[in-house]
Specification:
Layout lengths: L1 H18 L6 H19 L7 H6 L3 H19 L1
Helix pairs in contact: 1-2, 2-4
């Protein structure tokens, strides 16, 4: 599911760049991916105990922050 959240978010930010001439904000992209992932998990599993803020501030959130840095690099490669 993480893969789809990343791809969908990159697609939306790409569309903003192409059609609305908006510069991508990488911190916002990371938060959109995290929020989208939590919303999708909650839709599939009603007893999923976390929201995006819980995941961001938890110890596991450090892993997600590292993922955000990787996404930033990937997005820069795709945009160039």
């Amino acid at each position: 599911m993480l893969f789809f959240a990343i791809v969908w978010s990159l697609w939306l930010i790409r569309n903003d760049l192409i059609f609305k001439q908006r510069e991508p904000d990488y911190d916002t992209l990371f938060l959109f991916i995290l929020t989208r992932l939590c919303v999708w998990f909650r839709a599939l599993c009603l007893d999923f105990p976390y929201n995006a803020l819980d995941m961001l501030i938890s110890a596991d959130g450090l892993i997600l922050r590292m993922l955000g840095l990787l996404l930033r690099g990937l997005l820069l490669l795709l945009m160039s």
